[in-house]
Structure formats: structure tokens, C-alpha cells
Design brief:
Number of helices: 8
Strand order of the largest sheet: 3-2-1-4-5-6
Radius of gyration: 37 Å
Shape: elongated
Helix content: 25-40%
Largest sheet: 6 strands, parallel
């Protein structure tokens, strides 16, 4: 019996759990008083490309240059610009200390292309058709091609009298000519340097537009065209994006006309899917 008790006693003692030892933690240090930081005023956001945009208005001799002005698309663009010049007092000024243009109220539009004779003929034709826009004439009535848009809500109420309307000040336009071929790199740089924005409507763009895009991207002049040549447009964006970002030029390719067909096709496909 004693042997059995010893065996049982030893067996039971082997199953005893070891006593847990508690670790002693170091005493907590007293926390230092929290310091409240004074909120700083947010820094004004800056457009990195806008810092390099030249803002001196006396640098520009022209507000808008239409390259390929003698073509059919160029004529449509010029018709729109001259009608807009009639209804507007002038382009928006980028500074408050200088006048809108060096020639007073008016849009300075440059007709650019490679044929000087065609440019001169177009200038005379426009000045004859839109005499009211040009300050050298004394015509008071607009040409029949102008769209005279009346404001809504100006109908006379029965039983009331309406005071006579004052003549609104109409805008003016100034035309000049620049004969530059599409392969004259120095001439294209000079053309881009003298204007705010170039509207290129001369095609095909792959042979007539590459150097002009590069000139605008280099000197910081905004550029717009009507190309539908997607591969060429992609190549221009890849080639000149860095230069345009550095100079502040905005390059907008495929802006209407030739690109409308592909844009409408994509839109129609999206509507059907």
C-alpha cells in the first residue's frame, strides 16, 4: 500500500503546474505636458508651368494668328473671329496696368500662310465684307453676315414705355499678314513669338504642322489645330510635352473639324453599347 501511495503521490506531483512568475515592469515616467502647435497658414498653390509664362503684353504684336488662313477652314475661322470681335470689346487683359492691346480696343488678327498674294487678297476681301469691324471705315451698320443676337427679356410690356436704348460700343479688329512656309523653322519661331495663340488649319499636319508645334512649345505660345491624324498628334504630345510645360505653352491638338468625325463615331458607339 505504501508503494502504491508513493507511486500515486509521485504521479500527482508531476502534474502540478509551475507557478507563474510576474515580471516587474519599470515605473511609468510622468508624461510631459503636450505642446499644441500653432497651425500655419496654407501656402498658395502655384502652377509650375504658369511661372514661366511671359505676361508682358508689349511683347505681342498679335492676339490670334490663323496659319493656313487662305484655305476654306481658315475662312470659316476668320468669319467667326471677326463676328466675335464685333460683339466683344476686346480680348481679356492678363494684367491690370496695361491696355488690352497696343492699338486700343480691338482684336489683332494675323493672317499667316505661304502665299503672299493670296494673303493680301484675303485681307482686302475681309476688310470689304466686314467694314464695321475695322476702325478705318465709317460704316455704322454691320455686314449682312453678322449674327445680331438680342438679349432675352427685352420685350416691351403693354402699357409701359421703354427708354431709348443706347448704342453699345462694338469691338474692332486689326489685320496684318505673315508669309511663312511650314518648313521655315526660324520664321515659324518668329511667328510664334509675336502672337498669343496660333490656330493651325493648314494640313496635312504631319508635313505642315510639326515645326509649328515645336515653335509654339519652345517660345511659350498657345497652339490649337484641327488635325484628325491621331498618330501624329500622339507623337507631338510625346515630343513636345516637356518643352511646353517648361515654357507655359498650352498645346490643344484635334480641336474640331477633322477630328469631329472620329469623335462622333466614338460617341455613337458609346451610346449604342
Amino acid at each position: 500500500m505504501n508503494l502504491i501511495r508513493r507511486a500515486v503521490g509521485n504521479k500527482g506531483s508531476s502534474h502540478k503546474k509551475p507557478e507563474r512568475t510576474h515580471r516587474s515592469h519599470p515605473p511609468k515616467q510622468p508624461s510631459s505636458p503636450r505642446t499644441v502647435e500653432t497651425p500655419q497658414q496654407p501656402l498658395p498653390m502655384k502652377n509650375p508651368s504658369a511661372e514661366n509664362i511671359p505676361m508682358k503684353e508689349d511683347r505681342y504684336e498679335s492676339d490670334i494668328t490663323v496659319y493656313g488662313a487662305t484655305g476654306s477652314v481658315g475662312r470659316h475661322v476668320l468669319d467667326y473671329l471677326l463676328q466675335s470681335a464685333y460683339h466683344c470689346a476686346g480680348p481679356r487683359s492678363t494684367t491690370t496696368t496695361t491696355p488690352r492691346t497696343s492699338r486700343g480696343d480691338g482684336w489683332r488678327i494675323t493672317l499667316a500662310g505661304r502665299d503672299a498674294d493670296k494673303l493680301e487678297a484675303l485681307q482686302q476681301q475681309l476688310q470689304s465684307s466686314y467694314q464695321v469691324v475695322f476702325p478705318a471705315t465709317t460704316t455704322t451698320e454691320p455686314h449682312e453676315d453678322f449674327e445680331m443676337v438680342e438679349k432675352e427679356g427685352e420685350e416691351e410690356t403693354p402699357g409701359t414705355t421703354t427708354p431709348p436704348k443706347k448704342d453699345k460700343k462694338r469691338g474692332r479688329a486689326h489685320l496684318d499678314l505673315q508669309c511663312v512656309t511650314a518648313t521655315n523653322v526660324d520664321g515659324l519661331h518668329a511667328l510664334a513669338r509675336r502672337t498669343r495663340v496660333v490656330i493651325n488649319v493648314a494640313g496635312p499636319m504631319s508635313t505642315c504642322g510639326s515645326d509649328l508645334v515645336g515653335a509654339c512649345a519652345t517660345v511659350g505660345t498657345d497652339y490649337v489645330d484641327i488635325t484628325g491624324e491621331l498618330e501624329w498628334a500622339a507623337a507631338m504630345r510625346q515630343r513636345w510635352s516637356d518643352a511646353a510645360a517648361a515654357s507655359g505653352a498650352r498645346l490643344i491638338l484635334s480641336c474640331g473639324f477633322s477630328s469631329v468625325c472620329s469623335d462622333l463615331s466614338v460617341w455613337t458607339a458609346v451610346q449604342e453599347l
